[in-house]
Amino acid sequence: MKKIGLFLMVIFSSIGVLAQDFQYSQFYAAPLYLNPAFAGASDLTRIGMNYRNQWPGLDHSFNTYSAYIDHYMFDINSGIGLIFNGSMESKARLNQNEIGLLYSYRLKLGHESFLRVGGQVSYVARDAYFGDLIFGSQLDINRGTINPDSGEGLPEDFRHRFADFNFGMLYHSQTYWLGVSAHHLTQPNVSFIDENISKLPMRISAHGGIKIDLGEGFINNYFNNSRQERSAFLAFNYKHQDPFNQLDLGAQFFIQPLVMGVWYRGFPVKYALPNNESIVGLIGFTLESGLDIGYSYDFTISKMALRQSGGAHEISIRYSFLFGDPNQRNRRSTIIPCFRF
Which residues form the signal peptide (predicted)? Predict the structure, then answer.
């Protein structure tokens, strides 16, 4: 059993850190993954997708993807959502898929200030295939052969299923926002081996920022002039998942319809996540049709050089539209002034 435990630690170390959640650079383009309180926060019906390819320069990359839909119900001041998250590590064929239901409630605290409280319950499936891996006990150095039987008594396929629970709160006005969230409240056991216990550490996040109005502009389309929003956003995202911490700081500029952003991931904090320091650049478009498209690239600046890792590519797409009574459109006066991606 000790051999099996050691083997699993080696495998998990290949994807970075044991029992750590994946992350998106465009964290506000994955709002339901960031904080359950964001469910329904657009006051519209919203459909979105995210994809991230991390370290494509290595022999074995790490891919993550998400899809979600959420909707706001004005009559009961509530948001509902459905999210699917997936990750895949090619070396050990380690896959994790999650489907979750979300609910949030909006409380009005003042004329332009609101508090949203949300929760999520998920079903998680983790699978791994170790049949293609070779143990040291299989190697016959003298003959130069490989014994097909490792003698470890280790099955080729591992499967594990569990329930997971998340909670979040979000305060916002017309110019700033502040949120906190806690994921894996029950710290479920994620070990593939029944006799072992490997708890998934709780992930605690604090995130917020401020919107700065840069003055209204105009777009000339040869027939008439339309108003153009111009604004800047400063934001932070802090995460703690035992024993690691991470702080991201950045800015985005919105000159309708163009969005440009830059932020730094991995500011020095105690027990920072290793090999994760990056400068992230983003370009995106927010169209009047309700379609938002963003692309970002992580320039690795940690000990794992950019030439070796290949950085990380990330794409986000979402579409927002009004579903239901069109008279509700005039009630959309509480939009959270946060990063668009």
Answer: 1-19
First-to-final CA distance of the chain:
45
Please tell me the pTM assigned to this model. 0.85
3-class secondary structure, 29? helix
Superfamily of domain 2-331 in the CATH hierarchy: monomeric porin ompg (2.40.160.40)
pLDDT computed for residue 194 by the predictor: 67
The H-or-E segment that residue 12 falls in is helix 2-13
Question: Which of 107-121, 267-281, 297-311, 312-326 is modeled with the greatest confidence?
Answer: 107-121
Cis, bond preceding 257 (omega within 30 deg of 0) = yes
Q: Taking the CA atoms of the chain, what radius of gyration do you get in angstroms? A: 22
Place of tokens 């979750």: 100
pLDDT at residue 18 tops 50: no
Instruction: Identify the H or E element spanning 3.
Output: helix 2-13
Among 79, 70, 157, 158, smallest CA distance to 114 is for: 79
Q: Give the pLDDT of residue 275.
A: 52
